[in-house]
## 1
Amino acid sequence: MRWITYLLIPLALVAFVTGCSGGTVAPPTSSIAVPVTSAAAPTATPVPTATPVPTATPVPTATPVPTVAPAPTATPVPTATPTTAPAPTAVPSGSGAEILYLSGGRLQALNPRSKALRTLADGVRAFAATPDGQRLALVRGLNSATELWLINRDGSGLTQLTRNDRAESEPNWAPDGQSLVYSAAATAPPFPPDYQSWSLWCATAEVRLYAMGNQSEVTLGAGCQPAYGPDGRRILFASPPTSVSPGFAFPGALNAIRMVNRQGQNGWSVARSDAGGDLEALVVYAPAWAPTGGQLAYQRFLGYQALVDITLTELSSSYERKPVPLAVGAGWFLPPLYRPDGRQLALVGYNFGDARGFSGYDIWSVAILDLERPSQTQLPSATLDLGATEFTALSGATAAAWSPDGGMLALVLPAGWRPGLSSMEPAFPDPGPAELWLWRPGTPPDTKLAEQLDFGSPLLWLP
């Protein structure tokens, strides 16, 4: 009877995950749809508006012994030369919150209440705001010619920061707004991303810090996807894969989520891909800090299993290596997005090897995790206890951003999206223009704010 058990487990998993990804990493002969979901998903309820109760910062019993990184070298950057932004509109006094997005490469700022729209700069690929929302770091240019620029919230003072032969990307500000970290690689990061393209790109990347005071760059280490900690002293990033995966011809295994100080020193691995057991993975990537700084979340790519390219979203203490699985998903995921109070997490995923043969927007989705309710799910090898429960999910979203009060999200959805569309039938197979919608998790998105967004446009909701 044991062979019957071995047959039933993968069949049960396939039924459990119907509708999500198969794998381009090692395609099966079957094309069975396989979604992966958390157990015991609750019925939709509105996002709580009660006063947030932040998660207590863990107090470590023992601080890991760090390994000292090689002393970084500072590279002077030529004096920044201001240039003029394309006809910005000044921010009216008391104008309130704005949602930033890209349309035709132009950085747009939209007030969701008054619908006032401003253009801040053109030729933009990515952007990040200081915590007070008054200055923006921009990535401008094409391919290997992308550089970092600075602009004020009102559209004034467009200034180039970096000039080098690398492609800058993924800027992230220090809490005091006096420095920022970013990736510098041979080419711009791939979009849409997947396991192979990300591994090849991150293998050429390094993490740098730009100091606003003396206009200098410091290399912190090899890797990508840096994130400044809320305390302003610690920086996370994904180290590049260093080993060739079995069956592949590129380095796509054995890396870590590294933590260093602002000088690139006292580094240690807060998460490793070779964790062993059910958590053994090809790579770990996309780290994000919890609002308190006591915890972090990141993605763990397990690879192709039972018709699915499986990714675990994990949480760990930022003081000791204590991984806790939060959710199981199919495909490749962007960095987790904490709600401002830290009680929920938004996950945007790209199901790059979808077994149904879908493409375009149809293999994107966003899910909301409730971090205060544990659950269980089934992996091919074992039952897995999760530290969260999937609250709700929505197909077709390529980007999300929490409102400053955490009550709703802005979403990038395909042009022509409407509530009630089936996720089991292809509707938006092409990566065409997108729309900006408001979503209060627990109910369908009901307010469309803008059209003609770029495919893959990032989002930022500023106070």
## 2
Amino acid sequence: MSLFRAAIAELVPYEPGKPVEEVQRELGLDRVVKLASNEGPFPPFPAALEAIERAARDLNRYPDGGVYALRAALAERHGVRLEEVVVAGGADGVIDLLSQATLDPGDEIVCGWPSFPSYVLDALKLGGVPVKVPLRDHTYDLDALLAAITPRTKLVYLCHPNNPTGTANGRSEVLAFLDQLPEHVLCVLDQAYFEYIDVPDYPDGIEEAFKAGKRVVVLRTFSKIYGLAGLRCGYGIAPADVVTATSKVRRAFDVTSEAQAAAAASLGDPDELARRRALNAAGRERLVEILREHGLDPVPSLGNFVYVEVGGGRDLFQRLLREGVIVRPLDGFGAPDAVRVSVGTPEENEFFAAALGRVLVSETA
């Protein structure tokens, strides 16, 4: 009899982006730019840094296990009840809680593919069955998702915009999809990149789906535009019974005091959000321009990253690594022929442009 559960025997762990320090040490490089993990290129908001400093003075105490102050702030911000807010270690922390609360061995989740690996990995860890539906034009095929649902389906994920392709379904398509879901299925509408988006046809899942009575969990995070990836704090707006169920499987004190304080302090600066959104849009356009200048055809993106098929993602990743640029190979996302490039600062984007030029010139020489 094996010590380890059969469900994890063939599991391939999530591959995080390579740390800058490790690449510098391995390759002897003076400068390394990381454009791999969709982190925001800017630091936490000033108010968040002040909140972190204040919280650090009380780190001998456990954090608030109920995350009351932050949940209350989020409830007020979104016009929902405290009982409809769940906070965890990043949006993927909420995905983990939802998986634990709903999935028995043999239960199914449905998601598009390529997409965010945690949907699949968290199901597999519990003996669940991930049903991966191929994308259509790099975008979630919602009709095919509906067709893939069975009586054993518990969760259906809609990554919106999709990570890694950056694409999103339009408002009417999303709302019609939610209307057609069977009652036994919970939709997880993952809007981790929501704050970067400023297009008319992109729906606000909280305002237009959750508040309209759809059976949906809407995910958001502080890891991206708010610059708090290192503290791990994300949340979901969900039906009260779903939030109660997640509270039964969460670890005690799983969101640190600093994360709670910094996240709450980040909520009151719309001007800085707008500034970062505009800088991201300009940076994303520049990445697209750089890739097209080299004969590549990136997929139009709404997030803070660009997806491009290059014929061998792992090979280009290794070549760029030796030039001091870390991008994301996408084997674990289901797209081995592609890479994902996160938007950096203007200077980092130009560093990438120069490195890509050297790599592609050497490839054809």
